[in-house]
Specification:
The complex is a heterotrimer of chains A (about 280), B (about 300) and C (about 400). Chain A is mainly α. Chain A has 15 helices and no strands. Chain B is built from twelve helices and no strands. With about 400 residues, chain C is α+β, with helices and mostly antiparallel strands. The radius of gyration of chain C is 26 Å and the shape is elongated. Classes of the chains: A mainly alpha (about 280), B mainly alpha (about 300), C alpha+beta (about 400). Chains A and B meet through helix 1, helix 4, helix 5, helix 6 and helix 10 of A and helix 1, helix 3, helix 4, helix 5 and helix 6 of B.
């Protein structure tokens, strides 16, 4: 290609990608834009990105006070942290056993993991809902957490990683006097940090954003995670008072967007690995 | 004689140590095993069982009805609408996600500048809360103050009450679905492109296939075939599981124009409390997912055997 | 420290009738071996002969199907690896990549001297004695590191080290806890040739200094010959011969051992006994001391250095056509085609003779009769004065 052709090709590439990029980003831009505007400007037919009269403080203040938005966020943090912690505590030893310990029934057990990997969670919602009622934990944090404490995907991912660690490392650790459980915590997990990070991102993103299960088992705002919280807020608002609602939506998506921008590569690798299950 | 005795003793010690290793295995894997049983296997079996009953959620009695739930499902106008709508939705989302994802991936990879930026921008919707963004989409599509109608009105395109019109509601949901899945397809394609060895392009150059389109036809697209099949299945699985946008934006309306499989499952099981019926829908959903997953396993296997 | 010495002083390893199969494929077949306290014993054999498996069984990492292991007179079959008072250096070194050198070396001591509570990150530091014990461990790690010349690397991670440095760290991790027995699984095979020679000397020196039992696995005959007190040659899951390096070389128990040791390889020629004390081999006649049955066929083993150039053909002299000559510095290797053998005969000759040889010329090589090895049809060596072909016995005995 000649040089002018190259410049032209480059220009076309940027033109197209900037267009598609701005279309993809439009909802985010619009969300932030509306969150800054007073009600009067929402109805004006001439649309502008920035408000004529800044109303950001009012909108965000209403979002944070009228709906228990901070509470939703806190719930999100509690639920996501509890799920992630339990998942790692339960999945890592299991993955180690499947990868490095020779015991009868290992294949059968791995079969169960694969079956678990195959079943979408929505299919199980009904029996899990009944179980949740039976356990008397309806409308509690426990209800939000318990179906997810074991993650077949986590077991699968960790097992793949652990299998790539040489057996000699495990043997050396056994000779050094480590128990099987301390091999998991002191050797296997620290050596598998990329897998831990990828799994953590998948786990937190999916449970922060999950609507289906919280919708079933949580009724009071006290326990609602962010996604369900913002939907409840939207239903309560009912009118066209978009300012506070958009402020609320911005607050809900902000933590993940900021983390994403800070650790883009990890998010993309983690989430694509997660979708590959 | 002595040797025999020794071997008996030895065998016992072997059994004991084998037992120790098995014990270690089950101690480590036990909690996960029990939980997978309690939270996946048994509930799965329970869904199959409930699907053959006429149980209503909360009712004290139930009776076995065999396949009656399934026969009445397929006779049910709403369920048939759900199946049809889901199929239409999938058929809109999947091709557009694939074509757009592949085109954008090729375009991003064709130059060096701003690669990470473009990738990040297009990937962003995939990791944000669809519930929150659905609310934003509702504002965008608002019949009077929404950005879409404002812009369309300004440049002379038809405006509509997009989410309340039977003709537009599914395409609009499909656009939102595509918007969300696009990033996933994009990064998977980008990874696929990176994995194509430069040697192949060099060989194509030497063999005379040096134009952009030639290279695409001879090297890029054939090399991407396995990845494409894989993206196809992943995106299809996600499209079949669409729920949030229906629940928040349309609740299946107008009429039954946007009822989809998971929403029907949710409504039958938890709003109408016709639990047996809902379980039957879950079974059908499971069958679809398993069929796709089996296809995926075959793709992955053929991929690994190829590499 | 004194008790440690006392216990180590008795730390021989006895192996009785160890057998092991993987998926019904036998790997080890009735291995019995007594390793003396303080001995440097090498398990030598080609890959797949089971030597590493035997080492892992001694360590407790694999479980034998039958047989027993004793360390310092105590049966250890039911003890877990960490209870056996053995340390191991792995071929891949198996250093923990996420820990520094000092953490790698301290780990075995921490696991032994600190309780589970004391090992916890924050709480542990608050418990009584944790600090004192940790400081003690630190001192010992530094002392060991100094002895190995790696004290300047203590803060590094294994990924930042060269192969030789990693090797030393792996030795240090094994050394720091003063085990009764050192197990080494091909510890030098990942090093380049020069470093291997240097480390060979260092390990031998370490053995001399520590005075404890070393069991060393290798497929490299040079390592085995230069370092060992005794070599146990393993072939197909059995012990073929256990003897000092000199004996293994000079008096191999069978032809496989003879072929395994020595470079260039021993020359093997088919021969037939003619009459009392006379063999025909490659068209020549050879007088031997052994009384063999007339007509019986034997294999003649001749080390390359047991051949010397001769002026003309005659008794004890082989005649053939020179294929080519290799110069390897101090020596000359002449490859000679002799009748009745598809492989050329190799002779190690003084390098001054180089000008005497040209390709395709006919050469005569005289055999030093006293250095000839005779093997019967079943492969066992026919020892001096033993006329009859030795009956096949189990190698393990």
């Amino acid at each position: 290609m000649t040089l002018p052709m190259k410049i032209l090709a480059g220009a076309v590439r940027h033109a197209i990608l900037l267009t598609t990029g701005s279309l993809v980003l439009a909802p985010f831009v619009w969300m932030v834009s509306l969150s800054l505007k007073p009600p009067a400007e929402l109805f004006s037919s001439s649309f502008t990105l920035l408000p004529q009269h800044w109303f950001a403080v009012e909108n965000y203040a209403r979002a944070l006070t009228e709906a228990p938005l901070p509470r939703y966020m806190l719930n999100g943090v509690i639920v996501c942290a509890a799920i992630l912690l339990l998942q790692i505590m339960i999945c890592a030893p299991a993955a180690y056993a499947l990868a490095k310990v020779r015991f009868a029934g290992r294949q059968v057990m791995f079969g169960f993991v694969l079956i678990g990997l195959l079943i979408p969670h929505q299919v199980l919602a009904l029996p899990l809902f009944i179980l949740c009622y039976g356990l008397g934990i309806f409308n509690t944090y426990a209800a939000l957490i318990f179906p997810f404490v074991v993650s077949p995907f986590g077991i699968f991912l960790f097992r793949q990683f652990f299998m790539s660690i040489p057996d000699d490392i495990v043997h050396a650790a056994r000779l050094d006097g480590l128990s099987e459980l301390s091999i998991v915590w002191r050797i296997m997990l620290p050596m598998s940090l990329p897998a831990v990070l990828a799994f953590s991102i998948v786990s937190v993103v999916s449970h922060w954003n999950d609507l289906f299960w919280p919708l079933l088992v949580v009724r009071s705002q006290e326990f609602m995670p962010p996604s369900l919280g913002i939907v409840t807020f939207a239903n309560a608002e009912a009118g066209n008072d978009y300012g506070p609602l958009m402020a609320g939506a911005t607050v809900v998506v902000a933590p993940l967007v900021i983390s994403f921008l800070a650790a883009q590569r990890w998010f993309i690798e983690g989430l694509t690995a997660g979708s590959i299950k | 004689m002595k040797a025999q005795q020794a071997s008996v003793v030895d065998r016992r010690s072997r059994v004991e140590t084998g037992f120790a290793e098995t014990l270690a295995g089950y101690t480590l894997a036990g909690p996960a095993l029990v939980l997978i049983f309690a939270l996946f296997i048994l509930p799965g079996a329970a869904v199959l069982a409930i699907a053959t009953t006429d149980w209503h959620l909360g009712a004290k009695t139930l009776s076995f009805v065999g396949a009656a739930n399934f026969t009445s499902l397929f006779a049910d106008r709403v369920f048939r609408a759900a199946l049809f709508n889901t199929a239409v939705y999938v058929l809109m989302v999947v091709p557009s996600t694939l074509v757009l994802g592949l085109s954008l991936a090729l375009l991003i990879e064709s130059g060096k500048s701003l690669r990470a930026f473009y990738r990040a921008v297009h990937f962003l919707p995939f990791m944000t809360s669809l519930a929150a963004m659905a609310i934003v989409w509702e504002a965008l599509l608002h019949p009077t103050i929404g950005l879409v109608n404002q812009v369309f009105g300004l440049i002379g395109l038809p405006t509509a009450n997009w989410l309340r019109s039977e003709a537009t509601v599914l395409p609009i949901l499909a656009i939102i679905g595509t918007w969300q899945s696009l990033g996933l397809a994009l990064v998977l394609f980008l990874a696929g492109l990176k994995a194509i060895p430069q040697d192949l392009y060099d060989a194509a150059d030497i063999d005379g296939a040096d134009g952009v389109l030639d290279r695409l036809r001879v090297v890029t697209l054939p090399s991407l075939a396995p990845v494409s099949l894989f993206v196809l299945i992943v995106v299809t699985l996600r499209a079949f599981a669409a729920f949030d946008i229906v629940q928040i934006l349309t609740r299946g309306g107008p009429g039954d124009a946007s009822v989809m499989l998971l929403y029907a499952l949710y409504r039958e099981s938890f709003e109408y409390l016709t639990t047996g019926y809902g379980a039957a829908i879950a079974v059908i959903f499971l069958v679809i997912v398993i069929a796709l997953a089996m296809l995926q396993t075959r793709v992955v296997n053929s991929r690994t055997s190829r590499s | 420290m004194a008790t440690q010495m006392m216990r180590n002083a008795l730390a021989g390893v006895s192996i009785h009738g160890i057998s092991k199969s993987f998926d019904s494929a036998p790997i080890l077949n009735g291995i019995s071996l007594d390793i003396r306290d303080g001995e440097f014993l090498t398990l030598l054999g080609p890959s797949g002969c089971g030597k590493s498996t035997l080492l892992r069984i001694i360590a407790g990492l694999e479980q034998q199907d039958c047989g027993t292991i004793e360390v310092a007179g105590v049966k250890v079959d039911r003890l877990r690896p960490k209870q056996r008072d053995v340390a191991m250096v792995f071929q891949s070194y198996a250093l923990y990549p996420h820990m520094t050198v000092s953490e790698n070396m301290a780990l075995p001591l921490k696991m032994r001297r600190l309780s589970a509570w004391q090992r916890l990150p924050v709480i542990g530091a608050l418990l009584p004695k944790t600090c004192a014990v940790s400081a003690e461990i630190k001192t010992e790690v530094v002392r060991t590191a100094k002895a190995l010349g790696i004290d300047h690397l203590l803060a590094h991670k294994p990924g930042q080290l060269s192969g030789g440095q990693r090797q030393r760290v792996a030795v240090g991790r094994a050394m720091v806890r003063h085990p009764a027995v050192f197990l080494m699984d091909e510890p030098l095979s990942n090093l380049d040739a020069k470093l291997r020679v240097q480390m060979r000397g260092e390990i031998k020196e370490l053995h001399r200094r520590l005075g404890v039992t070393f069991i060393y696995v290798t497929h490299d005959q040079t390592e085995a010959m230069t370092m060992s007190d005794r070599i146990a040659v393993m072939l197909n899951g059995q012990l073929a011969q256990v003897a000092s390096p000199r004996q293994i070389y000079a008096c191999p128990a069978d032809r496989r051992v003879a072929e395994l040791i020595g470079s260039p390889k021993i020359n093997l020629l088919e021969a037939t006994a003619r009459s009392e004390g006379l063999l025909t081999v490659a068209g020549s006649a050879l007088a031997v001391d052994n009384k063999l049955d007339s007509g019986s066929s034997v294999t003649l083993g001749i080390r390359p250095e047991s051949l010397q150039p001769a002026e003309w053909a005659g008794l004890n002299t082989l005649t053939g056509r020179l294929r080519y000559v290799e110069h390897v510095g101090a020596d000359l290797f002449a490859h000679v085609d002799v009748p009745g053998s598809s492989e050329p005969l190799v002779a190690r000759l003084p390098v001054e003779l180089a000008s005497n040889f040209q390709s395709d010329q006919i050469v005569h090589l005289q055999i030093r009769r006293e250095q000839v090895l005779l093997f019967s049809a079943d492969g066992r060596r026919v020892s001096e004065g033993d006329a009859r072909v030795t009956p096949l016995r189990s190698y393990a005995q």
